[in-house]
Write a structure and sequence with these properties.
This protein is mainly alpha-helical and about 240 residues long. Helices cover about 65% and strands about 5% of the residues. Strands 2-1-3 form a three-stranded antiparallel β-sheet.
Length: about 240
């Protein structure tokens, strides 16, 4: 059980009849209507399950199995589990499992499992088939664990019906969005291709221009060198003639 689960806390508040083995001083207030401050040996008192379990483990009291877990009530459950109302025992299954462990009663645990299985099928069918119905009376006859089963089935069924009624509209919207998305993607792709081609062409032209410029500058440089060489030769001849 979870320490912070309110249903677990409330489940352990169920009263269990206990028989005291010893005199218990200053515990007389546990017995309703008693004016004696002390608890007498042999007194039978209804205590919350959590307190009864602690005292029983310490051998201060003996625990008596609640009437709803005894043979008479169990025979009614076996006869027809779906007819029995759990309005008075909302934590029947939770406490029943713990009591079966405490008393070592394996048959009780098997009975709880069979009863829950039989009731589960009926609860689930009702939860998915009842539409626009006041379910408060139905929930009132179930244990808290069974109420969760019913509520989940009821909600899931209503959500499914809502989805079915809006399915055509949702598909149409999704198709339109898909078409728009496809068109946008195609345009972007075309634009990207054009841009790439343009960039490539521009790069090619620029490269060609650079090559031409380099060639021209090289030619000019060679021309200048030839001119300088011719001038030097002429001057040398003039000095030789002199």
């Amino acid at each position: 059980m979870s320490y912070f689960d309110i249903n677990d806390i409330l489940a352990e508040e169920q009263k269990i009849t206990c028989n005291f083995f010893y005199d218990a001083y200053n515990l007389g207030q546990l017995e309703e209507g008693s004016r004696d401050p002390d608890m007498k040996k042999g007194s039978k008192v209804d205590l919350p399950y959590w307190m009864a379990l602690a005292l029983a483990k310490s051998n201060f009291v003996s625990v008596i199995m609640p009437t709803e877990y005894q043979d008479e009530y169990k025979n009614q459950l076996i006869a027809d589990p779906n007819v029995i109302s759990m309005r008075l025992f909302p934590y029947y299954d939770k406490i029943g499992v713990q009591l079966s462990d405490f008393f070592g009663d394996r048959k009780l645990k098997l009975l709880l499992f069979k009863v829950f299985r039989e009731r589960f099928l009926n609860i689930y069918k009702n939860s998915i088939n009842l539409k626009e119905t006041d379910i408060s009376k139905i929930l009132g006859n179930l244990t808290y664990q069974e109420r969760e089963v019913f509520s989940n089935g009821y909600k899931s069924s209503n959500d499914y019906d809502k989805w079915i009624s809006r399915k055509g509209e949702k598909v149409e919207k999704n198709t339109n969005n898909l078409l728009i998305s496809t068109t946008t993607t195609t345009s972007s792709s075309t634009s990207s291709t054009s841009s790439t081609s343009s960039t490539s062409s521009s790069s090619s032209t620029s490269s060609s221009n650079n090559n031409n410029n380099n060639k021209n500058s090289s030619n000019n440089s060679n021309s200048n060198r030839n001119t300088q060489s011719t001038t030097v030769k002429k001057r040398k001849r003039m000095f030789d003639d002199e």
